[in-house]
Design a protein that fits this description.
The complex is a heterodimer.
Chain A: H1 6-14, H2 20-38, E1 41-43, H3 46-61, E2 72-76, H4 103-110, E3 114-119, H5 153-160, E4 166-171, H6 177-183, E5 186-189, E6 209-214, H7 217-227, E7 257-261, H8 271-286, E8 290-294, H9 299-317, H10 336-347, H11 350-362, H12 369-389, E9 395-399, H13 415-419, H14 426-431, E10 435-442, E11 448-455, H15 460-473
Parallel strand pairs in A: 2-3, 7-8, 7-9
Antiparallel strand pairs in A: 1-3, 4-6, 5-6, 5-10, 9-11, 10-11
Helix pairs in contact in A: 2-3, 5-6, 7-15, 9-11, 9-12
Chain B: H1 5-14, H2 21-38, H3 73-77, E1 83-84, E2 87-88
The chains are: A alpha/beta, B mainly alpha.
């Protein structure tokens, strides 16, 4: 049951061979047994979860409900869910009970899915290792001395360790794809604007995008069908005809043109990661795809451009946390200014404060042109590089992360070293393109390697098609860590 | 570029984050490391390139000017640090 696909679980539920209450109870049992070691979940509410499961069972019994009714899903703790504590991994929101639902939470509730609990994450989604969480680091189920990646590290760990059949994440610079890669699961960041940001706590609004995390591409397609959709409450939500992201899953790959960016296979790539990714490319050729070399010459510059733009937007978004209307307020202060400064100093962790300071500086008087404007111009150049590459290919393949999961504590002392973990994922966010990671083997230390699939705008169905065809002929996505054996 | 301690304190004040003298030294070192990374941007000639503010060239929608929200102040204020008679309480600003 814990290794079943969403389609299999759905069939069992609808045939009444399994109830949502049984399914939910089994996953809650696994969470209670394994979470003390893995720290993937920060909030559970078994009463609520089981009430949703009972309601789902009643809908199924009445012949109602959709394809995913009764399926339990873990939610990254960045999504507001009414009545649930929603912390965003921060002391600032440690006692924040959301008074409303995110758009995607509403959609999942309406479709009868079960909220299994809220997952741990880097504080305000700022991190690549889940070590900046106020609630302590998540451990990688493949090796509990290693990080699961971040910022959606709890969601990735939950799926990898089979504590949940699927989970949600958000991706501002790689926060779905990098943890998916480091834990051996599949994750998709859609085209910017496909999934509503309403009720998703903001980090960098021009880059943030929610998406699904699951065991396989097929599961991702079913989840994206639910997550995607126009929402008037998000000013950047796109008004598009709904599409079935699973429609192309069975399409053959003959004639598919795959671009391989030469900048993704050079210096700094772990040999074990390179080997696994190259072996995956061979599989795609066997499936009928043709490969060609493309160039994304400004890949290296995406990191500095991102570390201007994302902190600038974060410093503005996080100005709302002032200890007045909600969130943490310092216990002692002298006056209003002192209350703001102490509440923010005590409520935010070190990495969040660093990024707010960088953002405040680059937006301050006299520096705007040199930093913020220059970064926006680079963003245009980086987006153009992708546009040129997509004139010659349908999809781009490469590594998701330059290395396998690193050790806990290994990169915490040097923020810049940590930032470079995201060198292959950041440019996708800057351009607003869809990107995904699927497992493609194991590297150093027997740890999972992720293959990144990048598509042109709105090509999610084609990406999922390619990933699904690869997963038919390989079984990397079915391997599970010792913790889940 | 290298930030001075005074600049670090000034930025922290603009950001409304209290910072002790001990912290300021360490933060300065880390910020300078981050800015060494950021400075790599300056090597690129971007003359004539239009800045890209957003992932897609989106046009913001307008909606009818009508009330769409109900009054939920009790619910929203139930999670506030300090409230009295429907008002958020903060230290006295004007004597």
């Amino acid at each position: 049951m814990i290794n079943s696909s969403l389609r299999q679980l759905s069939a069992l539920l609808r045939a009444r061979k399994l109830s949502s209450v049984e399914l939910t109870t089994e996953f809650l049992r696994r969470i209670n047994a394994l979470n003390p070691r893995l720290n993937a979940f920060v909030s559970l509410d078994e009463g609520r979860s089981l009430a949703q499961a009972r309601a789902a069972d009643a809908r199924i019994a009445a012949g109602e409900g959709g394809p995913l009714t009764g399926i339990p899903v873990a939610w990254k703790d960045i999504f507001c869910a009414r009545g649930w504590r929603t912390t965003c991994g921060s002391r600032m929101l440690a006692n924040f009970v959301a008074p409303y639902d995110a758009h995607v939470v509403e959609r999942f509730d309406a479709a009868g899915l079960v909220n299994l609990g809220k997952t741990n994450m880097d504080e305000f989604a700022m991190g690549s290792s889940n070590e900046t969480s106020h609630f302590g680091p998540v451990r990688n189920p493949w090796n509990t001395d290693s990080v699961p990646g971040g910022s959606s590290g709890g969601s990735a760990c939950a799926v990898a360790a089979r504590l949940a059949p699927a989970a949600t994440g958000t991706d501002t610079g790689g926060s779905i794809r990098q943890p998916a890669a480091l834990t051996g699961i599949s994750g998709l960041k859609p085209t910017y604007g496909v999934v509503s940001r309403y009720g998703m706590i903001a980090f960098a609004s021009s880059l943030d995008q929610g998406g699904p995390m699951a065991k396989s591409a097929e599961d991702l397609a079913l989840l994206l069908n639910l997550m995607a959709g126009f929402d008037a409450r998000d000013s950047t939500s796109l008004e598009r005809e709904p599409e079935d992201y699973a429609r192309d899953l069975e399409r053959p790959l003959s004639g598919l043109r795959i671009g391989l960016p030469r900048e993704y296979f050079g210096e700094g790539l772990d040999p074990g990661v390179a080997r696994a990714v190259e072996a995956a490319i061979v599989e795609f050729r066997k499936l009928g795809a043709e490969t060609l070399e493309v160039s994304l010459p400004n890949t290296r510059l995406s990191v500095p451009a991102y570390y201007v733009l994302a902190p600038a937007e974060a410093s503005s978004n996080l100005a709302r946390f002032d200890g007045v209307r909600y969130g943490y307020r310092a216990p002692e202060y002298e006056d209003l200014m002192d209350m703001y400064c102490k509440s923010r100093a005590q409520g935010f962790g070190a990495e969040v404060k660093r990024r707010i300071l960088v953002g405040t500086y680059v937006l301050s008087h006299g520096y705007y042109d040199a930093y913020y404007l220059q970064a926006q111009k680079l963003r245009r150049i980086i987006a153009r590089d992708f546009a040129q590459a997509f004139e010659r290919c349908d999809l781009i393949l490469g590594p998701t992360s330059p290395s396998v999961a690193f050790r806990l504590g290994e990169r915490t002392a040097d923020p810049v070293q940590m930032y470079l973990s995201d060198i292959f994922t950041i440019a996708v966010n800057l351009a607003g393109l869809p990107g995904m990671s699927i497992p493609c083997g194991f590297g150093e230390g027997g740890l999972p390697v992720g293959l990144q699939v990048i598509g042109d705008y709105f090509s999610e169905a084609r990406m999922l098609n390619a990933a699904h065809q690869y997963q038919i002929v390989t079984d990397w996505h079915m391997r599970r860590p010792p913790e889940a054996a | 570029m290298s930030l001075t301690l005074d600049e670090v304190r000034r930025i922290a004040h603009l950001a409304r984050i209290e910072i002790s003298d001990a912290e300021a030294g360490q933060v300065r070192e880390q910020l300078n490391g981050i800015f060494r990374l950021i400075e790599q941007m300056q090597a690129v000639d971007t003359a004539g390139v239009a800045p890209m503010a957003h992932a897609r060239d989106v046009t913001l929608r307008l909606r009818e000017d009508e009330v769409t929200e109900s009054d939920q102040h009790r619910l929203f204020q139930s999670i506030a640090p300090q409230v009295e008679e429907g008002l958020y309480l903060v230290p006295k600003v004007i004597e």
